[in-house]
Amino acid sequence: MKNTIKWIVLLAFTFTAMGVSAQVKLGHIDAQKLVSTMPETIAAQKQLEEKQAEIEKELTNMQEQFQAKATEYSKNAKTYSDVVLAAKQQEIQEMEQRIMRFQQIAVENLQKTREELMNPIVTKAMDAIKAVGKENGFTYIYDNGALLYTAETAEDILPLVKKKLGLQ
């Protein structure tokens, strides 16, 4: 009798699980691929490239000035008095430190700008993914990078989200 009850309970759980799994609609998307195709991303990348080019130009200018000072120092070091020699060494060291600070600030600034430009784009994409999921009755939508296994029956919603955003 106990075995019969166990089998009935086991069968009930099995059929219940099968019924629940039949109602689940899975979808997958490569969110990074979606974001990279959005026109806003292309515009943001252009802005970042322009800012980076401006920074590189200034850095090159600073390095050329440093190199000129270092070359001038090495050529004339034997002719300088001790006081002038110390002043020139300090000037070169300060220039080197300025260049290093500039590089650090530039990297931080580029990262901040990238976040400021990309966060609204990522938010827009995520909102579109959620809207498509809701409109099309998906239970779960996975990003390929976050899931190790995707059933072949899962639907790639990238075309639906692109359509929602008006992308080709």
Structure description:
The chain has 168 residues and is mainly alpha-helical. The chain is built from five helices and three strands. A three-stranded parallel sheet has the order 2-1-3. Helix 3 packs antiparallel against helix 4 (82-135) and helix 4 crosses helix 5.
Low-confidence stretches: 147-152
- The ordered H/E elements are HEHHHEEH
> How many extended strands?
3
The percentage of residues in β strands lies in 5-15%
Strand ordering within the main sheet: 2-1-3
SSE-based structural type: mainly alpha
Q: How far is the first residue's CA from the last residue's CA?
A: 64 Å
So what's the overall shape? rod-shaped
> Would you tell me the overall average pLDDT?
83
Portion in helices: over 70%
Work out the oligomeric state of the chains in this entry.
single chain
Q: What's the gyration radius in Å?
A: 31 Å
Biggest sheet features: 3 strands, parallel
Task: Figure out the total of helices.
Answer: 5
